[in-house]
Design brief:
The protein is 44% helix and 20% strand. It has an eight-stranded mixed barrel with strand order 3-4-6-7-8-9-10-11, surrounded by five helices. Bound molecules: ligand C2E and calcium ion (3 copies). The site of one calcium ion has 5 residues, from strand 8.
Length: 278
């Protein structure tokens, strides 16, 4: 049992071994959910220190099944990655998020959206073309799209990954490294690759400001980011103490429950401009 602030207590149940049949069922239901349009996106505000301005929105997939209830992406995305179905899901997410940003723009709200891209999706031969096409169809300026990549995209052919990132950066899309520090790749890529932003993983934010290793890691990431001229955003910021520590460390962008949970698009819009009622 681990204490988790205001939320009370969280129980870490050892992950039950999931048998083949239930995995197959989940995979089947997931495919059906996509076909029947049952996935939704929620948007979590990214906030700038000081101004408290919302500077972006991370799109996070949501799935409510009539029988199963809410199923966490932490549960079905890994399965979709194994089966390859994450490519289809990811394409839907990309279209939906880009469409949302275009809709907001049409209503005068210029809000960059960040989309999670799984390594398998990134490695598809047509990925860059797909991104370009989706932006074109929605007539969204590429500068309003950010792609969150994990260090896993570099696991395969790093030269090919570099080519692809350059092509995406050439379109004007922002690239960030998600869950930074949890991967296994060398840091050399930070210098070579056209990355604009690092996201400090929640696991390193959790123990701030008391856990010595989290303190060391968070400081190191912020300093490295600064040395390379990258933006650094911290995810999973839940307490003022975490925010204050990160701020003094030099991190000026935050995402986490302290600021806002992932919100429905209409809630997000309300939140960003609460005065628009007419
Ligand atoms: P992630 O990309 O690291 O996303 C951040 C996760 O942390 C989200 O969980 C978000 O709801 C949660 N979170 C945000 N602020 C806080 C906080 O203050 N405290 C805590 N405890 N959690 C916070 P979510 O939405 O359940 O997503 C889990 C993971 O599933 C994501 O981790 C991402 O890896 C994956 N995922 C979600 N949506 C997509 C998607 O559209 N495509 C892909 N490929 N993966 C996705
Ligand atoms: Ca993410
Ligand atoms: Ca993340
Ligand atoms: Ca994370």
């Amino acid at each position: 049992v681990k204490e988790s602030g205001r939320a009370g207590f969280r129980f870490h149940v050892p992950r039950k071994e999931v048998d083949l049949l239930s995995r197959m069922r989940l995979d089947h239901d997931m495919r059906q959910a996509l076909a029947e349009g049952r996935f939704r996106l929620h948007y979590q505000p990214q906030v700038e220190l000081g101004s408290d301005r919302v500077i972006g929105a991370e799109a996070l997939i949501r799935w409510r099944d009539p029988q199963r209830g809410d199923i966490s992406p932490a549960e079905f995305i890994p399965l979709a990655e194994e089966s390859g179905f994450v490519v289809a899901i990811g394409e839907w997410v990309l279209r939906e998020a880009v469409g949302q940003a275009a809709y907001w723009l049409s209503r005068g709200l210029r809000m960059p959206v960040a989309v999670n891209v799984s390594a398998l999706q990134f490695q598809q031969a047509h990925f860059v073309e797909t991104v370009a096409e989706v932006l074109r169809e929605a007539m969204l300026p590429a500068s309003l799209l950010e792609l969150e990549l994990t260090e896993g995209v570099l696991l395969g052919d790093a030269e090919e990954a570099l080519k692809r990132m350059r092509a995406l950066a050439g379109l004007g899309v922002t690239l960030s490294i998600d869950d930074f520090g949890t991967g296994y790749s060398s840091l050399g890529y930070l210098k070579r690759f056209p990355i604009q932003r690092l996201k400090i993983d929640r696991s390193f934010v959790q123990g701030l400001p008391n856990d010595a290793s989290d303190v060391g890691i968070a400081n190191a990431i912020v300093q490295m980011g600064r040395a390379l001229g990258l933006q650094v955003i911290a995810e999973g910021v839940e307490t003022e103490a975490q925010r204050d520590f990160l701020a003094q460390a030099g991190c000026h962008e935050f995402q986490g429950y302290l600021f806002a949970k992932p919100l429905r698009p209409d809630e997000f819009e309300q939140r960003v401009r609460p005065r628009r009622h007419v």
